[in-house]
Amino acid sequence: MQSELDNIKETLTERIRILFMEQHNGNKLQFAKKVGCDEKTLRLVFDKNQGMTMNLFFKIAHALKVEPSELIKDLKIDFENDI
After folding, report:
1. For residue 7, what is the domain's CATH number?
2. pLDDT reading at 82 higher than 70
3. Angle at 8 (CA atoms; ends 2, 10), nearest 5 degrees
């Protein structure tokens, strides 16, 4: 299960990074101000060294002008392998 969660985290982070690059041209400082967090926090998230809290996830979705459900669309956990 942990590898599935790691894959989901990686996919979600990549989706956010793509939108961030499209909308903010890689300017982490500008994006951090829009999100309301520290630039270092974004760098750690994008480098996959830190996970996101739900609070940060929703702030990022808002800053990207996208519904949170769109970011997590089609991400699933296979409960059949939990035995």
Report:
1. 1.10.260.40
2. no
3. 105
Residue 77 lies in a domain: no
Tokens 């800053």 identify what position?
63
Please give the single-letter amino acid code of residue 31. F
Q: Are 45 and 52 in contact (CB under 8 A)?
A: yes
Contact at 8 Å (CB) between 17 and 46? yes
The boundaries of the domain holding residue 42 are 2-72
Q: Are 53 and 42 in contact (CB under 8 A)?
A: no
Residue located via tokens 């956990």 = 77
Instruction: Indicate the pTM of the whole model.
Output: 0.86
Residue 30: the pLDDT is 94
pLDDT surpasses 60 at 37:
yes
